[in-house]
């Protein structure tokens, strides 16, 4: 289970509920969202995408935890 947070200044990638990397995207500003392939469509995803949730605001830590718990329960993933 992967989740990504972008707050306009920095990005955080979480895998199975654990923060993996955080950083400043620098000049690589988001220009849109691409699901299932690299942004230039040269490396398509070879797997299943079970569920996508997109929010129009930044979730707080408790809400992120609730979403991760919901998804982990639904798909049988063990969180750390």
Q: Which stretches are poorly predicted, pLDDT < 50 over at least 5 residues?
A: none
Strand order of the largest sheet: 1-2-3
Average pLDDT, all residues:
80
Structural class of the secondary structure composition? alpha+beta
Total number of helices: 1
- What would the principal axes of the Cα set say about the shape? globular
Q: What is the first-to-last residue Cα distance?
A: 12 Å
| Main beta-sheet strand count, sense and barrel state | 3 strands, antiparallel
Task: Please give the number of β-strands.
Answer: 3
What is the helix content? 10-25%
Structurally, the number of domains stands at: 1
Please write out the topology.
Elements: E1 2-6, E2 11-15, E3 18-23, H1 61-75
Antiparallel strand pairs: 1-2, 2-3
Q: What does this protein structure show overall?
A:
It contains one helix and three strands. A hairpin with a 4-residue loop joins strand 1 and strand 2 (11-15). It is an alpha+beta fold. It has one domain (1-24, 46-80). It has one helix spanning 61-75, and strands spanning 2-6, 11-15, 18-23.
């Amino acid at each position: 289970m992967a989740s990504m947070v972008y707050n306009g200044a920095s990005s955080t990638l979480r895998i199975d509920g654990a923060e993996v990397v955080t950083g400043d995207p620098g000049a690589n500003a988001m220009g849109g969202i691409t699901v299932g392939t690299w942004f230039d469509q040269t490396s398509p995803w070879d797997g299943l995408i079970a569920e996508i949730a997109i929010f129009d605001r930044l979730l707080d830590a408790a809400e992120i935890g609730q979403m991760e718990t919901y998804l982990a329960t639904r798909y049988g993933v063990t969180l750390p």
